[in-house]
Specification:
The complex is a heterodimer. Chain A is α/β, with parallel strands linked by helices. Chain A has one domain: Rossmann fold (3-Layer(aba) Sandwich), CATH 3.40.50. Chain A has 11 helices and 10 strands. A 6-stranded mixed beta sheet of chain A has the order 6-7-8-3-9-10, sandwiched between helices. A 4-stranded antiparallel beta sheet of chain A has the order 2-1-4-5, with helices on one face. In chain A, strand 4 and strand 5 form a beta hairpin. In chain A, helix 4 crosses helix 5 and helix 5 packs across helix 7. By secondary structure, chain B is an all-alpha fold. In chain B, 76% of the residues lie in helices and 1% in strands. Chain B has 11 helices and 2 strands; from the N terminus they run ααββααααααααα. Chain B has a two-stranded antiparallel sheet with strand order 1-2. In chain B, helix 5 crosses helix 6 and helix 10 packs antiparallel against helix 11. Classes of the chains: A alpha/beta, B mainly alpha. Chains A and B meet through helix 3, strand 6, helix 4 and helix 7 of A and helix 7 and helix 8 of B.
């Protein structure tokens, strides 16, 4: 399915065969007085994996967090421009960020299971949103852990604490936890940088499986990973310290890595800086 | 110029400082040790089951201290029940909701000041407000309300610290699933902070159980085992004070004091145990 989708998309201008899941227009972002991002315009293709790459401090994680308004939790942040999710501006008045984040789930760099059992970790989201019956919860827990490729490893130890798992298992537990609320989009902020190589492999396989039904955006500082897992890649760069970062280039991953159009992209992917 | 002497001076001052630090550290330990030893030597012979579990006779010359133990437990637990929700919710407000600024600094300063009010003043205030003003008489309830003022800042500050110590990324996990602020606070943050909150509660309980001045003016001195919150009573510290001051029964005073120290020590050790076990589990 994912291959056919990719084939179907090949040769089509970026993000224009069907409406983008996210469409971001002229986004400016500020931390207090610091102007962090400027002039970001980009479309996030639905049912595909989009990777954000760039050197540390280039604003890629900041941009990711504007998509589900996680930046709202940091005092003093400000957004200008539009972030449209299925055509609806997520910063419009009347949009509840709490509802938005249920639709746009997030995985963090540091695996962050809650200090509770494996079962409760996964059941937490559905319970928040009103699922009460034990049988329903059992079902969603099994389904989510299965989708996160973790069920086989944990099905006999569900009452054990989530923090007793290995780092890689913890990250997949967090993925299962997000999948349990059935998000439309999954934002992953360097999900593999704190886990072991075997687990990285598993998480990458997982992305390929999940994109049939979910739109995935991943921030990574690992270009090989971006090349392996993503269909589209966006390259961000802050040219000088203290200046706002920009989106330098956005293209299909294959094109961006083989024939970058911008000199700065080429310098970055060939390892001349960063 | 005179480098050699500087070296000698450095070594000398270092040795002196180290010596002074050692002496001070030892003094602290020795002081606690001798205090405990003194109480134990004087009180241990009194600590029989009969002393603990029977009522006093006559003018308290003989018999046990059971009603004072009951009074102490009763007023401490009641105070705990009153102050815990207030202090914890206030701490949640300060740590999670309030915009960090002047108001929050003022509240924190007020809490710290409350903690440093002499307990005799707290007792007088409690008497004026609860015993007389609200007509609660000398009662366990008056005592518990006055004690809550004493415990409030302790619990509030430890709870606030405990809440702040919960890592941000755990909260993000919850927000990232579409949890509201209150859902995150009540289902993730407070449970995660609960061992440290419990530690604060136990320390405050120890403080309240050992308090004299506050309860003598609010709960009274009558030997009584309170059943209703409006019953009076005499807590263990008050009993110690009266036994010793009036010279009625110095042995009973030491016996009570020893038991009180053991109880407070038990609170503190439990608190330490909880912190350690928790650190191991998260470590």
């Amino acid at each position: 399915m994912s291959e056919t989708l990719a084939e179907h998309l090949s040769g089509v201008p970026v993000g224009h065969d069907q409406p983008d899941k996210f469409h971001v227009r002229d986004l400016e972002f500020y931390y207090g007085d610091f102007h962090a991002l400027t002039g970001i315009t980009v479309g996030i293709q639905r049912h595909a994996v989009t990777a954000f790459i760039g050197p540390s401090g280039c604003g890629k994680s900041t941009f990711l967090r504007t998509l589900n308004r996680m930046n709202d939790l940091i005092p003093g942040t400000r957004v200008e421009g539009n972030v449209l999710l299925d055509g609806q501006d997520v910063y419009a008045a009347g949009i509840d960020p709490v509802d938005l984040r249920r639709r746009v789930g997030m995985i963090f760099q540091q695996p962050n299971p809650f200090p509770m059992s494996i079962y409760e970790n996964v059941a937490y989201g559905p319970k928040l949103h009103g699922v009460k019956k034990k049988a329903d919860l059992d079902e969603v827990v099994e389904k989510s852990l299965t989708r996160a490729n973790l069920w086989k490893e944990v099905k006999d130890i569900l009452p054990r604490g989530g923090l007793t798992l290995s780092g890689g298992q913890q990250q997949r537990l967090c993925i299962a936890r997000v999948l349990a609320v059935e998000p439309e989009v999954l934002l992953m902020d360097e999900p593999c940088s704190a886990i072991d190589p075997t687990s990285v492999q598993k998480v990458e396989d997982l992305m390929a499986e999940l994109k049939d039904r979910i739109t995935i955006v991943i921030v990574t500082h690992n270009m090989q990973q971006a090349a392996r897992v993503s269909d589209f890649t966006a390259f961000f760069l802050q040219e000088k310290v203290g200046e706002a970062a920009e989106l330098i280039e956005f293209d299909r991953t294959a094109s961006l890595f083989t024939s970058p159009k911008d000199r700065r992209t080429e310098d970055y992917i060939t390892g001349r800086f960063g | 110029m005179n480098a050699p002497r500087a070296v000698v001076d450095k070594r000398l001052t270092n040795a002196l400082a180290l010596g002074a630090i050692w002496i001070c550290a030892l003094t602290t330990v020795a002081f606690l040790g001798s205090l405990l030893l003194y109480i134990v030597v004087n009180g241990v012979r009194e600590l029989t089951p009969a002393f603990i579990f029977t009522w006093p006779h006559g003018v308290n010359m003989e018999g046990g201290i059971w009603p004072t133990i009951q009074s102490t437990m009763y007023v401490t637990v009641l105070a705990m029940a009153i102050v815990t929700p207030v202090a914890v919710l206030a701490a949640v407000y300060l740590a999670e909701y309030a915009v960090q600024g002047r108001l929050v600094r003022t509240i924190r300063f007020a809490a710290d000041s409350l903690a440093s009010v002499p307990s005799i003043v707290m007792g007088l205030f409690g008497m004026a407000l609860f015993v007389e003003g609200m007509g609660l008489q000398f009662s366990a309830l008056s005592g518990a309300l006055a004690l809550s003022f004493l415990m409030l800042p302790i619990i509030m500050r430890t709870t606030e610290e405990a809440i702040r110590a919960v890592p941000k990324y755990i909260r993000w996990g919850s927000y990232g699933l579409g949890a509201s602020k209150w859902q995150t606070v009540s289902r993730i943050v407070l449970p995660a902070a609960s061992p440290r909150i419990l530690t604060g509660l136990l320390l405050a309980m120890g403080r309240a159980a050992g308090e004299t001045a506050v309860v003598i003016y609010t709960m009274g001195t009558m030997i009584y085992a309170p059943v209703s919150p409006l019953d009076p009573g005499r807590t263990m510290p008050v009993h110690v004070m009266l036994m010793a001051m009036e010279g009625i029964n110095l042995k009973a005073a030491y016996g009570t004091a020893l038991l009180l120290v053991l109880m407070v020590l038990a609170f503190n050790l439990t608190a330490r145990y909880i912190v350690r076990r928790n650190r191991r589990m998260q470590g």
